[in-house]
Amino acid sequence: MFLESNVKLQPAGWIEVVCGSMFSGKTEELLRRLKRAYYARQLYILVKPAKDNRYAEREVISHDENAMECITVDHPGQILKHVSGVEVIGIDEAQFFDSELVEVCEQLANAGKRVIVAGLDMDFLGRPFGSIPQLLAIAEYVTKVHAICPHCGNLASHSYRFAKSDETILLGATEAYEPRCRKCFSLGDRLKPKSISKGH
Ligand code: ZN
Of these four, 68, 84, 114, 174, which has the most CB atoms within 10 Å of its CB? Predict the structure, then answer.
C-alpha cells in the first residue's frame, strides 16, 4: 500500500501516478489518498476530463460507487484556475487529457502542490495511452495496480474489449470490457466473456 513520505507539505511538491487496466482499482486508490488528505485538513480538489460523462457530471464514482465531488474541465490548462490555496490535486481518467497535462502537472508540483494522477496506462489494443507514459517518467511515485484475469486468475494488466469499434475511447460501456492477463489478452476473441456470478 502506498504511504506518503511526507504528509506535511514542503515548498516543493511532487507527482504521483496510479495506473493500471480497467477494473484494477485506480479510482478507488485515488479517492483513498484524497480522503486521507481531507482527514489531515488539507485542501484538495478532484478533477476529471469533461468527456468522461459515464456517470454524474459533478462526481467521480468508481465502480464500487464510492463518490466524491469533482470539477470537470475540457482542457488541462483549466485546472490552474481552480488551485488557489489548494494543497492536493487529484486527476482521474487522465488518459483522456491531451499532452498539455504533463506541463500542467509539472507546474503544479513546482508550485509546491501534491499532484495525484490516475489513469489507464494502456488502451484496448495494449498501446501506451495518451500522456500517461510521459507522466510515469516525470512522477516521483508510481503505483501500478492490477485487476485479476477472470479466465485464469493471474494478475491482469490489459483491458480487453469485446465491442467491435476502432475508436480508442469507448465510454459508457464497461460491460464491453474485461481485464485480462497478457496470455489471455493475446488469445483475443477465442476466449468468451466471463459472466458475473453473484454469491449468496
Ligand atoms: Zn489470464
Answer: 114
